[in-house]
Design a protein that fits this description.
alpha/beta, Alpha-D-Glucose-1,6-Bisphosphate, Chain A, domain 3, 5-stranded mixed beta sheet, globular, binds 2-acetamido-2-deoxy-1-O-phosphono-alpha-D-galactopyranose, binds zinc ion
């Protein structure tokens, strides 16, 4: 066969296989709408009831193969999880080569594939995209994937495998992992043959990297003791493995809600989202006063901390508190090293950050704050603008990014005193304790206990930096959430026209009042956030604003 004919044959084979496999993973008809269900790649990929997902996951496999080919065969990750959602949901998201979220321009391609009407249309969309981006379909494609502990996971992983097979991609199934572990593995694979490999590209390499860095930065401190609610998800098993690789003299972890083999219990009355939204203890905990507790979410990329005082009152230490703690500690070490003018720290938050945290970071720590729209990809990109970018959503999803220049500066720094030396050494070790690819509950746990150990603080000392303003988050079901358009990092409504002025009028009636409305990216509803000086006023403001928007 002539070379050209051979090439054509490879492409024709792929297209034929894509159609054939697609017929085995048809789009599910949505009875309630009397039409095929329409999908959107949202804040966290595709996420919905697992019954609708099989065709979507199959098609994500095709897209992952193209994405890899478009990036010269770099390894792409696919994670099957629905995070903090109920057990019957599932979801799928793509991971780019450096462990980052999928590049925004590709989200539209994912949406297009997911909504192709027929098997033939899907193959056509695949060919069209490869032609428009000049992607050579004969080139190798490499994809790795994993899933959380949901019952629907194995079947969806099988659909993904079919997508990768049809498109001729090489693949590795990592079975059950946390989301951040897969991000770590993707980055480690893609940096393996560079001068700065990120880590051993496997699960054991992940534990080794974190535990070595943690042991070094703890040095003569410890043991830190913490009770962790694992949301009955993947985080419990994985955290046990991490804990087993750390000496007891540094860290002792007690895990509760660790029934990952009962997926129907996932996130039920427990986990980071429950604790944050209900502002209460998870089921299955009887805290000792002033002991440190934490909750993970279903795929262990979020963490929140809490404790009870002597009177058994509950105190939440959420993402804003973690960001404030991390920014404070890193800034202190930079001052101690005399590097505060060379390496600039910044914090990135969303509009959901408690107003007290923003004031504390800006006015007490004197650290700049950037506000971005919801969704960690926005925060991540904004954090990359700083030498050290601390980013956290209030719900506990976040991390700290050190720029390559900052890491070099620390590595080559010549200390003039033992105090300077210890500050720089600790900063350099912190870089490896922190997962640089994405928010990671396990890595954030190590970061927090490290800081508390260095400060000789308990959770109440940490909490005393500032007092949260009372706040309320309300979910409102509306006719058309897409009618809600925002500006100024989602803090003001542009549409429906006139509503913002009415919100302003309400807000002005409350001391320290603040409220905003935006459409959820993961649920069919809008969210109303309100804060004010007292609990009563925050609740009242939230209800009034909710009342205002519910008719749209
Ligand atoms: P939506 O549904 O767009 O508000 C929620 C969280 C986000 C983010 C995503 C992805 C809040 C208010 N919103 O998004 O912060 O974590 O889920 O999981 O917590
Ligand atoms: Zn999550």
């Amino acid at each position: 066969m002539a070379e050209q004919d051979q090439k054509d044959q490879i492409i024709l084979d792929q297209l034929r296989q894509i159609e054939e496999f697609s017929a085995q993973h048809p789009r599910v008809f949505d009875e309630s709408r009397g039409a095929l269900r329409v999908f959107t790649y949202g804040t966290a990929g595709f996420r919905m009831h697992a019954d609708y997902l099989e065709s979507v996951v199959y098609r994500v496999g095709l897209l992952a193969a193209l994405r890899s080919r478009n990036l010269d065969g770099s390894t792409i990750g696919v994670m099957i999880t629905a995070s903090h959602n109920p057990p019957e949901d599932n979801g799928v998201k793509l991971i780019d080569p450096q462990g980052e979220m999928l590049e925004a321009s590709w989200e539209a391609f994912a949406t297009k594939f997911a909504n192709a009407d027929s098997d033939v249309d899907l193959a056509r969309a695949y060919l069209d995209l490869s032609e428009s981006l000049n992607i050579n379909l004969e080139k190798p494609a490499n994809v790795v994937y994993a899933r959380d502990t949901r019952a629907s996971g194995p079947a969806l992983a099988a659909a993904l495998k079919d997508g990768l097979t049809a498109s001729g991609a090489a693949m590795t199934n990592y079975e059950v992992l946390t989301t951040p572990q897969l991000h770590y593995i993707v980055k480690s694979i893609n940096t393996a043959s560079t001068p700065t490999p990120y880590g051993e590209p496997n699960e054991m390499g992940y534990y080794a990297k974190l535990s070595d860095a943690f042991a070094a930065v703890m040095a003569d401190k410890g043991p830190a003791i913490v009770t962790v609610d694992a949301a009955n998800g993947v985080g419990g098993t994985q955290l046990r493995k991490l804990a087993d690789s750390i000496d007891d003299k540094f860290l002792q972890i007690n895990i509760v809600n660790n029934a990952s083999d009962s997926p129907e219990k996932l996130n039920a009355l427990c986990g980071a989202d429950f604790v944050k939204t209900q502002q209460t203890l998870p089921a299955g905990t009887e805290p000792v006063p002033l002991a440190l507790h934490a909750s993970l979410d279903g795929d262990a990329d979020r963490i929140v901390f809490y404790y009870v005082d002597q009177a058994k009152r509950f105190f939440l230490l959420d993402g804003d508190k973690i960001a404030s703690l991390a920014a404070m500690f890193i800034q202190e070490l930079l001052v101690q090293a005399g590097l505060q003018n060379k390496i600039r720290v910044g914090v990135v938050q969303t509009a959901y950050a408690n107003g007290s945290s923003t004031r504390y970071i800006q006015e007490v720590l004197k650290v700049p704050v950037t506000v971005t729209p919801t969704g960690v990809k926005h925060l991540h990109h904004a954090a990359q603008q700083y030498d050290v970018g601390v980013y956290f959503e209030a719900n506990g999803h976040g991390t700290v990014l050190f720029s390559a220049a900052a890491a070099r500066e620390l590595a080559s720094f010549e200390a003039q005193s033992p105090g300077q030396q210890s500050a720089v050494t600790n900063l350099a070790r912190l870089i490896d304790v922190i997962n640089q690819t994405v928010g990671d509950a396990m890595s954030d746990l190590l970061l927090v206990v490290t800081i508390l150990a260095h400060k000789a603080w308990g959770p109440a000392d940490w909490n005393s930096a500032y007092t949260d303003l009372p706040n309320r988050l309300v979910r409102v079901v509306v006719r058309d959430r897409f009618g809600f358009k925002t500006e100024d990092a989602e803090r003001r409504l542009v549409e429906p026209v006139g509503v913002q002025a009415q919100i302003d009028d309400l807000v002005n009636k409350y001391k320290l009042g603040r409220s905003f409305v935006r459409a959820s990216g993961t649920e069919d509803a809008v969210r109303v956030y309100a804060e004010a000086e007292t609990r009563l006023e925050a609740d009242e403001l939230a209800l009034k604003v909710a009342d205002l928007v519910k008719n749209y």
